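Input (structure):
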């Protein structure tokens, strides 16, 4: 897992401490903070045949765990019941994969447990991961992935992801960058970068994640690479990510843009709450601005 205090936090390197995957003692593991729930999502209740074996592998290794497959209709009903203030933003996403990303954060925040993409095969018991408050996988070329997440109910980082979703509901010209930065791995990576309580976060290294390495002796997972949402502009985004100067410039623009929107909202809120005598010069200016929808 991630070694606490490591300064190279956003891009963990090979110095990440490995952990053993020995199944924890049942008596002790009953005290672990993460509940025994596996969450997966799909459009409908019938999973495509190509992923059924992967789905079953995770269920077979955890026969006494609760299992929940969330469909699109389940997701909307869940948000309506527990996060109604996010429903409009959720429905406004231009791509279905954004809704698939967002619902996993909401589900884990509300219930806790382990989220697993359908194209991931479970090779070992995940019981011992329940000892960690929050886990996300290290990914390439930078940051963290969101295809496998472990979290306690109401974890502060999950709360940050949930609260940040409306502000990061972006349109970046094409599908790949829009998804990556609005709800996907770069969204998670940026929120982790801004997160203050990093000691509660752990990172699953490549050796256990079972990806981006040929040296994994006993990985926990195997990936079928079944993602279908990647489009031709992925190469452009990956080129940007591999060039730190360009990436830094784009991230700076995103951060500055977000701050500018926050400041604009705060200023607007401040002036809207102030009372001025009717007919005063300031009241006239505000009324004029309102007529042009400038405030």
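Output (sequence):
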């Amino acid at each position: 897992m991630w070694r606490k205090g490591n300064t190279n936090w956003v891009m963990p390197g090979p110095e990440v401490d490995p952990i053993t995957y020995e199944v924890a003692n049942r008596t002790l593991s009953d005290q672990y903070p993460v509940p025994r729930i596996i969450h997966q999502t799909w459009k409908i209740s019938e999973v495509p045949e190509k992923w059924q074996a992967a789905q079953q592998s995770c269920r077979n290794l955890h026969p006494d765990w609760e299992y929940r497959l969330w469909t699109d209709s389940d997701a909307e009903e869940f948000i309506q019941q527990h996060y109604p203030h996010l429903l409009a933003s959720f429905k406004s996403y231009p791509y279905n994969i954004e809704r698939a990303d967002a619902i996993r954060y909401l589900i884990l925040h509300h219930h806790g447990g382990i989220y697993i993409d359908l194209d991931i095969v479970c090779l070992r018991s995940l019981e011992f991961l329940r000892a960690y408050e929050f886990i996300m996988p290290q990914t390439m070329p930078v940051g963290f992935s969101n295809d496998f997440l472990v979290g306690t109910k109401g974890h502060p980082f999950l709360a940050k992801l949930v609260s940040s979703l409306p502000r990061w509901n972006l349109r970046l010209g094409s599908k790949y960058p829009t998804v990556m930065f609005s709800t996907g791995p770069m969204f998670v990576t940026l929120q982790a970068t801004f997160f203050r309580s990093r000691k509660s976060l752990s990172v699953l290294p490549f050796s256990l994640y079972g990806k981006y390495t040929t040296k994994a002796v006993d990985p926990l997972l195997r990936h079928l690479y079944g993602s279908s949402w990647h489009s031709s502009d992925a190469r452009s985004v990956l080129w940007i990510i591999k060039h730190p100067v360009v990436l830094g410039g784009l991230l700076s623009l995103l951060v500055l843009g977000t701050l500018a929107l926050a400041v604009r909202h705060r200023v607007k809120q401040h002036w809207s709450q102030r009372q001025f005598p009717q007919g005063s010069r300031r009241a006239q200016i505000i009324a004029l601005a309102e007529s042009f929808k400038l405030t």
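Notes: The longest strand covers residues 37-41. The chain is about 45% helix and 10% strand.
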